[in-house]
Amino acid sequence: MTMNIVIADDSSLSRKMVMNALPPQLSDVEITFARNGKEALDAYYAGKADVMFLDLTMPEMDGYTVLKKLKEAEANTIVCVISADIQPEAQQRVLALGAACFIGKPVTTELLRKRIHDIGLL
């Protein structure tokens, strides 16, 4: 069964880094790129968001708002926040909003793969 993954970040370089860091064991995946929170939610409503890698600071709609809307929708999407805001308050806030994990930027392949393993995607 295909796993639908959304990579939401306003930086094309960051989106590409996350995509390249995905473990090769995730072979049957469809990746959707979102440049902002609105596009990330559009992907969710289109049924293309089993897993979402979500930046917090994006134009049009930030990652906090996306998390709130997913929580309100009682979404089963597994969200991993990837952000440069590494303050403990930010991490606590996203976890309280339902994120499965938090990764500080810059993301490394090793850390992303560890978090993917930790949240049970492998």
Automatic annotation (TrEMBL):
Keywords: Phosphoprotein. Residues 4-120 form the Response regulatory domain. InterPro entries: Bact_response_regulator, CheY-like_superfamily, Sig_transdc_resp-reg_receiver. It holds the Pfam family Response_reg. Gene3D superfamilies: 3.40.50.2300. It comes from the Bacteria. GO terms for biological process: phosphorelay signal transduction system. The modification 4-aspartylphosphate is found at residue 55. This is FOG: CheY-like receiver. It comes from Hahella chejuensis (strain KCTC 2396). The lineage of its organism: Bacteria, Pseudomonadati, Pseudomonadota, Gammaproteobacteria, Oceanospirillales.
